[in-house]
Write a structure and sequence with these properties.
Radius of gyration: 21 Å
Strand order of the largest sheet: 4-3-2-5-1-6-7-8
Number of strands: 17
Structural class: alpha/beta
Number of helices: 17
Helix content: 40-55%
Largest sheet: 8 strands, mixed
Strand content: 15-25%
Shape: globular
Distance between the termini: 46 Å
């Protein structure tokens, strides 16, 4: 890295020279909070200058983060949002009121701390987390919503002392890092619970909930669940009932499981309502506006106004089951076309069995060290077709069926490029 950073391209080139989890997997991770503590001390501990909500979970954490940010923005607050990974542009990770960080701010950060970073051997995620803390402090946000990168206990974000911790779900994912059982993974995710601070949990299976309850009790933290909230998805509406009131959300662009995610968000806003007031109307409108504010989500995202094409980064058994159950309510499975691309550490017999129930599967091999090769994917999907060119997507077959792109969030940028090419072709035609 040069002594003076003058443009965003230099920032991206430097960051891309650091191994990151998307390309290297476990080899790029270094779980030890001491480096992050030192980095924060070097910056003057900016993470202590704003109030935050800290969100972990196997599935749903990114969705819950965006929902929370949208609801609080709708309610008039200046809201920081830190999520990962980014889908196309690194600036997506750092947003205030749904606007990406300015390129000039990234340059200022690296010209302030670039030499320290170069000498300290930080991970990619530690650096981006530090940027988020620095930026939200500098811009004096009213509230920041912070998504855990992986696990929780030793995640770089876990140096904050939030108003509330949130755990959306717990399932078997990243078992080579977090543990091979639900209890082990729950312990890692429960590591974000802070002494004397509340924790809100989603719909956890009993084994996981018991672990979280025990951690909360040990830390004298209040545990709040969504158990007493009646969540319903019907007639393209999501209805959340609590006591004598109900929240009604247009559900056309949400999956069934998002009823539970909305309930989690409502539990958080209800908990913090004395300090951060949110009306029923602001809550409903905030959820309604998530898709408008955060158009790149890669979670049941409709890719084209003209075709029934969706992207969903479902990459573990729980999220794939939820996705396919929802798709079955939109169209019969025999009318689906499934286009999959995977990271090699996400290929498993369990994942393949869930997708192989559906007959019309295409495989695409991404580039990158961690991406699964075509032969590797074919060993799990022997009857699948190969999508060797996006030109095939312009055939009538693809344009008339429900098409779901899935397998990995990292497939999103590839598919987005395809969508741009297809839109250009449509305009020419």
């Amino acid at each position: 890295m040069s002594e003076v950073i003058t443009n965003l391209q230099q920032v991206e080139e430097y960051l891309n020279s650091i191994p990151k989890f998307s390309s290297k997997g476990k080899a790029a991770a270094n779980f030890d909070l001491s480096r992050m503590v030192r980095f924060c001390n070097q910056m003057g501990n900016p993470q202590n200058n704003f109030k935050s909500i800290h969100v972990a979970g196997t599935n749903g954490k990114g969705t819950v983060c965006r929902m929370l940010a949208s609801v609080y923005q709708e309610s008039g607050y200046r809201v920081g949002l830190y999520t990962s990974p980014h889908l196309i542009d690194i600036r997506e990770r750092f947003q205030i009121n749904a606007a990406f960080i300015e390129s000039d701010e990234l340059l200022k950060f690296f010209n302030s701390y670039g030499e320290y970073i170069r000498q300290s051997n930080f991970t990619y995620f530690e650096i981006t987390t530090a940027i988020a803390f620095w930026y939200f402090s500098k811009k004096e946000v009213d509230l920041a919503v912070l998504e855990v990168g992986l696990g929780g206990r030793l995640d770089a974000t876990n140096v904050v002392d939030p108003l509330v911790s949130v755990i959306t779900s717990i399932g078997l994912d990243h078992t080579n890092i977090l543990g091979n059982t639900i209890s082990e993974i729950a312990k890692e995710k429960g590591g974000i619970i802070k002494p004397n601070k509340p924790v809100v949990i989603g719909d956890l299976e009993p084994e996981a909930q018991t672990v979280i309850e025990n951690i909360a009790k040990e830390k004298s933290g209040e545990l709040l669940t969504i158990n007493l909230m009646d969540t319903v998805y019907q007639d393209d509406s999501i209805i959340i009932k609590k006591n004598c009131s109900q929240i009604v959300i247009d559900g056309k662009n949400w999956k069934k499981v998002d009823a539970k995610n909305i309930a989690v968000v409502h539990r958080v806003t209800d908990l913090l309502n004395d300090e951060y007031s949110v009306s029923k109307e602001q809550f409903e409108q905030g959820i309604e506006n998530v898709q408008k504010r955060f158009q790149r989500r890669a979670v049941f995202e409709k890719l084209s106004p003209d075709y029934d094409w969706y992207f969903d980064g479902a990459h573990n058994t729980q999220s794939i089951q939820e996705l396919t159950m929802h798709l079955a309510e939109i169209a019969p499975p025999e009318n689906w076309i499934v286009i999959l691309s995977f990271m090699n550490d996400k290929l498993s017999t369990e994942v393949a069995e869930l997708w192989n129930k559906f007959g019309n599967i295409y495989l695409y091999a991404m580039e990158g060290e961690r991406a699964a090769a075509l032969d590797e994917m074919k060993s799990y999907f022997p009857s699948a077709n190969v999508l060797d060119s996006p030109d095939k997507l312009q055939s009538n077959q693809f344009q008339s069926e429900l098409v779901i792109f899935s397998g990995s969030f990292y497939f999103y940028s590839v598919v987005s490029n395809w969508m741009g090419s297809i839109a250009s072709a449509d305009q020419i035609n």
